[in-house]
Design goal:
Layout: H1 2-57, E1 59-64, H2 72-80, E2 85-91, H3 93-102, H4 107-114, E3 125-130, H5 136-144, E4 149-153, H6 157-198, H7 200-208, H8 213-249, E5 253-254, E6 258-259, H9 263-296
Antiparallel strand pairs: 1-3, 1-4, 2-3, 5-6
Helix pairs in contact: 1-6, 1-8, 1-9, 6-8, 6-9, 8-9
Length: 298
Amino acid sequence: MIRRFFRHIKEGFFGVGRHLGMALSSASAVTITLIIIGIFIVITLNLYEVTKSIEGSISIVATIKDEYDSDHLAIQERIDKIDGVESIIYHTKDQEFDYYLDTMGDDSLREFYESYRDDNPFKAAFIIYTDDGNKIESIKTRLDDMIEIDSTSDGGSNTYVLVGVLDHVRVVGGILVVALIILAMYLIYNTIKITIASRSDEIWIMRNVGAKNGYVRAPFLVEGIIIGFLGSVIPMLAAVFGYIYLYQSVSGRLFGAFVLIEPHPFVLYVAGLLLAIGIVVGFVGSYISVFKYLRLKR
């Protein structure tokens, strides 16, 4: 009898140890996964800002027929109503001529072309910026249909290829983040499933004495949330201090060209997002595992 008593104590002690070890192992796996998720979130959001900035710098140049130049304000109002147009800058004929001269690196060439100012061959033009690179082609088509517009230029097929590449970069980044979230959920799901299996006798006893499903599920759901919370602590700290350190180290510019998002309040948003992902993933992963187990045991 005494041996049986000590055996129960020993089994209980090692059972708790195994359970704690599995929980810590799962939390560690979630930590690693959330760190990777955090890295991809930071990269994806910065890429989003960079790609939107690049798209925002893409413009359409629409020259105006000389006979309609006096009505440029009315024309600008019509263009501004086109879907996707974010801003418009009007350049007079002289401004277009000056812009062309500024592209000349040789002073002698500038002096030569300056002699043509009185007979300025350039036309007044609108510089049109869009709020979405995917709308450039449709805006250009609408401009070409306007009788007041002499010609339009948007960079041609190279512009459309660039916009397509930027879209794919954003999509791929988002897919990777979602895939990693699913992976973290799967890790917690497996941990809770193993935990439930190891406590099958306890669950069976509770169900036989009339315990409701909610009472049986609650501890495992709480455990999943705790695992998700613990797994998110280190990634949150890494996201906050790691990004601030990176930003300060490169003076806010990556490779000297790409401007990074300022740390505050960006790092707080990322940390909050990681915490939310950890808790939600822990809850969902444990809920799926518990629901599936209890359903099979009915």
